[in-house]
């Protein structure tokens, strides 16, 4: 039977009922369910990466539940309701798509699809910057608003993007490549020093430079790293199966044999 968002809101309200609801749900707070919210977002990304659309349907439902859960806790505190969440995002979408909607939300006579996607992205970032300036004081941190809970690599990309909006940026991707090489050299120097703290600091600088390179190349660094992880896992498993097929455990092979098998796996991937 088809269900509506109202059904979900009703169920959430009943689960939070202090007398007849679920004790676990009643005990939750904004802070206690944040880890679940983050986890569900990652599970959505994982389903997308694997092209599993039925799993994506289910994971989107789990993520929607997190939105409803937060909104219910807020409503109980007298802060806002789920409807206010919807109204806020509707207003934002209309405000940030002036090439599609007029101020009332009606379609403009022009065809929004004819606008250049790069110009639209730039206008979106400009609108976000103006909104931040409007709601913050002059004393507020210039890079305020980049969520601390983001994965560090994603946050690095957003911080650098925010700095670039002020004009503090490399002119092109080639300049960032040079910076990556510079930071890699500094990691090598730190390794020679024997200082773990120095190595950690320089590796942090290197990763930040790589996140900047991804931004200049139009690549999401977190997505790129997830893909890199998946590729390594796929090739490592294939390498292991190739060697273990000889009747010995993987640990019995030396590095040279592993590298030879790894190269063979890569060649097969290129061919296939």
From TrEMBL:
**Domain (NTP pyrophosphohydrolase MazG-like): residue spans on this chain:** 28-101, 175-235
Q: Which domain of life is it from?
A: Bacteria
> What InterPro entries would the database entry show?
MazG-like_dom, NTP-PPase_MazG-like_C, NTP-PPase_MazG-like_N, NTP_PyrPHydrolase_MazG
Q: Which NCBIfam families match?
A: mazG, PRK09562.1
Protein name per Swiss-Prot or TrEMBL:
Nucleoside triphosphate pyrophosphohydrolase
Origin species:
Methylobacterium jeotgali
